[in-house]
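ok posting inputs for the zinc ion job
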Amino acid sequence: MSGDTPVACDYCKKPARLVNGRKLYPHRQDLFDKKFYQCEPCDAHVGCHPGTEKPLGRLANPGLRQAKIRAHGAFDPIWRSGRTSRGHAYKLLAEQLGIIQEDCHIGMFDVDMCNRVVEAVNVINSMPLNAHAPRNRSKHKRSRKQKHQ
Ligand SMILES: [Zn+2]
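and the output
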C-alpha cells in the first residue's frame, strides 16, 4: 500500500480534504503551515504528523475534541509530573483499558474510550508508581536522598 490512501471522515465516511492551518485556524498564524484533514460538513478534523500528510489519528468532531482534551488532561500529568515515564504511563493505561499498548493512542480513541481513559487514570493514580518507574530525567531534579543500607 502506498501512503496516499485517502483519509476518510469517521462520521460520514467520505474522504476528508487535506487543508492547511490557515483554513481551520485563521487566527493561529503558528498553525498556518501545518497540515490537517478536514470534513467540513461534520466540522471534523485531525492534524498530521509533523512534516507529513499522515494523520495523527481519526478525524474528530467538536464532541470528540472535547473528550480527547479531557482524556489528555487526566492522563498526561501522570508522566508530565515525573511520577513515571511516558512509555510506562501508556503501558499502565493500556492494561487498564484491556488493549495492547500499540493501540493505546488517545488520538485514535472515540468518545467512549476517552471517557474510559479518565476512569483508568483514577485507578492508575491510586497505584504506587515509583516502584516500577524508570529513572525520569525531568528538569526538576528531585533531591531524593538515597540511603545505603
Ligand atoms: Zn464527515
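notes: Residues 62-131 form one domain. The chain has two domains: 1-59, 62-131.
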